[in-house]
Design goal:
By secondary structure, the chain is α/β, with parallel strands linked by helices. It contains 16 helices and 20 strands.
């Protein structure tokens, strides 16, 4: 179907050249897509779970066969390095389809309950089942920082549970999501089960949220947009799964392995060029090792090659757009005005094209600074000192966000003690690694709900109770 509003250009953030054209759907077309998903929901939800799983497995096979061209497109529209595009974008997307091609039980037997005779009937032994049922039509609004893993992490568990989906990809890099939809179609997903609606303006996203045919919205993006979506969902009593902003605190005690801490924190400078909500962007370091950690982080940043993500050895590619580069740079300048010391970075890399930001380290920061409190979403790290454990916890929790925090300490008992007190959905102890079966989501303004692993299957389902006399 031709888009009512034509097409818009998708540009490569490294070369600034046009990668391709993406459709600009109208509000009416988005609502029509949701209506198609509603019509397809009944048959798909009644399809045996094993058959739905087989479709996801075949989709993973299609992605595997096309990994290199898919990664090339993802790299072109997102600016990811070659290794990131192949391994962390397309590779993780494929793995998520494979993960949810494994059916799990949806029924849980509850212990029998003995009911005494009363106004509701004679004495009886009541049996019960808790059964997970699909929610219905799910709108999936995805983020630009990973055009494969993020959409696959929504679509795969939603389909596995028997839902149908309307997918609204990020406007900056939507083309990969259309390839994903083609892979699902080739794998045998019936018409109407997966519907992709694109657009560069808020119109299509708003329509995908407020359609009366939509039962649930799964959103990854900024807290501000998430709050507006939640208002619409509240009026319609639509279910929500929100993975929003982050300002992860990395607590580094004076007995920590500094090399490990520097390597983990340094991923903020490189991984997706800092465009990741889980990044340890606030470094809280005990005074005894403060100066040494700052020195090592600055040296780490200085060794990272910034440039064309297609070139071997490039570690830091561009941010997604000129507008976002300007936003990140404005935060660095704000930090300077607030009194932070720019230890390294702070100047635009001298490259002929592309939207690049140098890895930047800000020291001498205080908790009230905006660069400390607000999500920058770029390769920028701020450092604050602390004296003792209590102060570290207070500083870490002094945030509107609570997605993932980190603790580095040679005393594992202390690290776990601190982790239990942090108001964050996840805590990494001496690592920035992830367990992909562990629940993922945030406290406070970092989101609502949990996904990943079996938790995603719960997120995309409703629980029904079935009760009978024994």
């Amino acid at each position: 179907m031709a888009p009512d509003h034509g097409f818009y250009e998708v540009r490569n953030p490294a070369t600034e050249q046009v990668v391709g054209l993406a459709p600009e759907a109208s509000r009416a077309q988005v609502h029509a897509a949701a209506a198609a998903a509603r019509e397809a929901f009944g048959p798909w939800s009644r399809t045996p779970a094993e058959e739905r799983a087989a479709v996801l497995a075949r989709a993973a096979d299609v992605v595997r066969r096309n990994l290199v061209p898919y990664a090339g497109l993802a790299q072109a529209e997102s600016g990811a390095t070659t290794g990131t595009a192949r391994g962390m974008q397309v590779g993780v997307g494929m793995a998520r389809f494979r993960r949810y091609a494994r059916p799990e039980p949806v029924e849980t037997a509850l212990p029998p309950q003995i009911n005494e005779a009363g106004p509701f009937g004679p004495a009886a032994v009541m049996g019960a089942l808790a059964v997970r049922r699909p929610v219905g039509v799910v709108t999936c609004i995805t983020s630009y920082n990973n055009p494969w893993a993020n959409p696959a992490g929504k679509i795969a568990p939603a389909l596995a549970m028997g839902n149908t989906v309307v997918v609204k990809p990020a406007p900056q890099d939507p083309l990969s999501v259309y390839r994903m939809a083609e892979a699902l179609e080739a794998a045998g997903v019936p018409p109407g089960v997966v519907n992709v609606v694109g657009g560069s303006t808020p119109e299509s996203g708003e329509a995908a949220v407020d359609s009366p045919d939509v039962d649930m919205v799964s959103f990854t993006g900024s807290t501000a947009v998430g709050q507006r979506i939640a208002e619409v969902c509240g009026r319609g009593m639509k279910r929500q799964l929100m993975e929003l902003g982050g300002k992860g605190a990395a607590i580094v005690f004076d007995d920590a392995d500094l090399a490990s801490a520097v390597s983990g924190i340094g991923t903020t400078f490189s991984f997706y060029s800092g465009q990741i909500c889980t990044a340890p962007t606030r470094v809280l370091v005990q005074r005894g090792v403060h100066d040494e950690l700052v020195r090592q982080l600055a040296a780490y940043a200085g060794h990272l090659k910034v440039g064309d993500p297609r070139e071997p050895g490039t570690v830091v590619g561009p941010v997604i757009s000129a507008a976002h580069r300007d936003r990140v740079e404005s935060y660095v300048e704000l930090g300077r005005k607030e009194g932070a010391r720019i230890v390294t970075g702070g100047e635009r890399p001298p490259l002929p094209t592309g939207f690049y930001v140098a890895p930047t380290l800000l020291a001498d920061c205080t908790p009230d600074m905006r660069v400390v409190r607000e999500e920058i979403f770029g390769p920028v790290v701020v450092v604050l000192p602390f004296d003792d454990e209590e102060e570290a916890i207070a500083l870490a929790d002094d945030s509107d966000y609570g997605l993932i925090d980190y603790v580095w300490s040679g005393d594992v008992a202390r690290a776990f003690r601190v982790a239990r007190r942090l108001r964050a959905g996840g805590v990494g102890v001496n690592t920035v690694g992830r367990n992909m079966e562990a629940p993922f989501g945030g406290f406070k303004k970092s989101g609502v709900g949990r996904d990943v692993g079996s938790y995603a299957l719960h997120a995309y389902s409703e629980t029904q109770a079935i009760v009978w006399p024994g």
